[in-house]
């Protein structure tokens, strides 16, 4: 089973995405903040990172840059999401999803990155 790490500060959105992905047979770990993500991923490598850009204690663009610089995670797809971001500033991410997102589009983009 493919594993996805989600960093999203909005509880409702995080729970919705987790529910959707688990229903599609993905293993999901969720993190509400950049700090929680950094403190709990030591040595773990998922198949995909799904990162919100606007976080209360950091931002997904910086997390993406860190993941892409790290030799252990540089080849893992990173999908950024935001309601506020300029789509041209993907900062090395593999894809971008604008909020609010269409559920089917979210699932299709994730499947495409994992193919």
From TrEMBL:
Matches recorded under InterPro entries: Bact_response_regulator, CheY-like_superfamily, Sig_transdc_resp-reg_receiver
Domain Response regulatory: residue ranges: 3-114
Keywords: Phosphoprotein
Gene3D superfamilies noted in UniProt: 3.40.50.2300
Name of the featured protein: Response regulator receiver domain-containing protein
Pfam families the UniProt entry points to: Response_reg (PF00072)
Organism: Salinimicrobium sediminis
Gene Ontology biological process terms from the UniProt entry: phosphorelay signal transduction system
